[in-house]
Design brief:
Layout lengths: L2 E4 L40 H6 L2 E4 L12 H13 L4 E4 L11 H15 L4 E5 L5 H13 L4 E5 L8 H12 L4 E5 L1 H4 L5 H6 L6 E6 L3 H12 L10 H15 L3 E3 L5 H7 L4 E4 L6 H9 L3 H6 L1 H4 L15 H6 L32 H9 L6 E3 L7 H13 L19 E5 L1
Parallel strand pairs: 1-11, 2-3, 2-9, 3-4, 4-5, 5-6, 6-7, 7-8, 8-9, 10-11
Helix pairs in contact: 4-5
């Protein structure tokens, strides 16, 4: 049986290890930060740096046995991320369980990351909310403590109109540079193309984390260079150079939110990179995939990272001609386009996403000995059968998991589940 602990934390103690306010601090308050002035984001942010990042990890937040942040484990994970080519971190995102934190915890974790790592990696705070007021205030606080950029989601549950989305994003981006996060599977509302394309005129709009797939990412690139298709009579080299210049300066920068599709998105569909869950475990491999096209490596990882049970998600097999020719999926002699054959359909969902994220990731990191096996409810670890399957997959890539000395299946009673923290 897994242990459900009812831990109440009513004070901060333990110095570096106790970055945690009382558990009763409401999510909608920032009581310890109310006196902080509105930030001057122009001096603190790094817009070109964020736009240049290919690999951004949605970093896991580790806990100790009482549910406080385990900053020693967190710092060790971030060091490994930096050492293996990760360029930026999302702090307190879905994977980092920002929704299970008070705002005080959230801002303090951003501040800690900035204080320790600011000059070595980009710090992007997930300060979005379905309340525009909360999102603006949290974003201001994040910039006050030095984050480079914010991640901004569209209002969820209490959904709004397209005009409301425009007003919401205008308000939060006024606080500083941000990446817009489109994940309709969680919010219940897709952000329309018109809203995203309108944001191109906002200097604080860095791009979009797009979770609806590579066709959407491709469409943003396609809309920008459609007019170039009429220029095929020009010299090929001039055409290619102009198309890339137009894409860089007028296109929508897109990071894939899907680990299984990110490789093809980056190299075959006009995507810029990935905001990744899997790079918590195998950062070096994902850094390689974002820098260089490697169909064989991506195919080898599919059992671990594929989101849906169909073949070819990480390959370039479905790239249209203009993408294949001009963004890196062209093979063979001039005039002959060949594509890597996708693998056969899989019969099961990939292990890292066999349950809603971050359940499998949290389980995997505990099995690898990188975090303590502590879960804030409602998250619980994968069952033993799932852990056994995952252990076999993790052992195949163990040499690429920084800091992992052993992969253990673990017993149920080794996990601690916290209802109060």
């Amino acid at each position: 049986m897994m242990r459900v602990a009812h831990t109440t934390l009513c004070s901060r103690h333990g110095g570096h290890h106790a970055l945690q306010p009382p558990h009763h601090t409401p999510r909608h308050t920032l009581t310890s930060l109310q006196a902080v002035a509105t930030p001057d984001t122009t001096a603190q942010t790094s817009t070109p740096g964020v736009r240049g990042a290919r690999l951004i990890t949605a970093i896991k937040t580790p806990y100790d046995q009482t549910g406080r942040f385990d900053l020693d484990a967190f710092d060790a994970m971030v060091e490994q991320q930096i050492n293996h080519g990760v360029e930026g971190l999302i702090i307190g995102g879905t994977t980092g369980e920002g929704h299970l934190m008070s705002w005080d915890e959230h801002i303090m974790l951003i501040a800690h990351t900035v204080n320790v790592f600011r000059d070595r990696i980009l710090v992007i705070g997930n300060t979005g909310s379905n309340s525009t007021k909360e999102a603006v205030h949290a974003t201001e606080q994040g910039f006050n403590v030095g984050m480079h950029a914010a991640l901004q989601i569209n209002p969820y549950y209490g959904k709004t109109s397209s005009d409301g989305l425009n007003a919401h994003f205008d308000a939060v981006l006024a606080a500083g540079p941000g990446i817009v996060y489109n994940v309709p599977g969680r919010t219940g509302q897709d952000i329309p193309d018109a809203v995203i394309l309108r944001l191109r005129d906002n200097p604080n709009f860095l791009g979009v984390k797009e979770c609806t797939g590579n066709q959407r990412i491709e469409s943003y690139s396609q809309q920008v260079i459609d007019w170039l298709m009429r220029a095929r009579g020009r010299a090929r080299i001039v055409y290619v150079i102009i198309s890339h210049i137009v894409y860089i300066f007028q296109g929508v920068t897109c990071w894939s939110g899907n680990d299984d599709e990110a490789h093809a998105g980056r190299h075959c569909h006009g995507g810029h990179g990935v905001i990744s869950v899997a790079s918590n475990i195998i950062p070096g491999l994902y850094a390689r995939l974002m820098q260089t096209r490697d169909d064989e490596l991506m195919n080898d990882l599919q059992d671990l990272v594929r989101l849906v049970g169909v073949g070819g998600g990480g390959m370039c097999s479905n790239a249209p001609d203009w993408v294949a020719t001009h963004i890196g999926c062209f093979h063979g002699q001039t005039g002959t386009k060949t594509y890597t054959k996708p693998p056969p359909p899989m019969t099961q969902v990939a292990w890292l996403f066999c349950e809603p994220n971050p359940i499998a990731l949290n389980t995997a990191l505990a099995m690898c000995g990188l975090v303590q096996p502590v879960f804030r409810l409602p998250y619980v670890p994968l069952n033993k059968e799932q852990r056994e399957h995952g252990a076999a997959l993790l052992r195949k890539v163990q040499q690429h998991i920084p800091g992992c000395k052993e992969v253990r299946v673990m017993e149920d009673d080794e996990f601690t589940l916290l209802a109060k923290f």
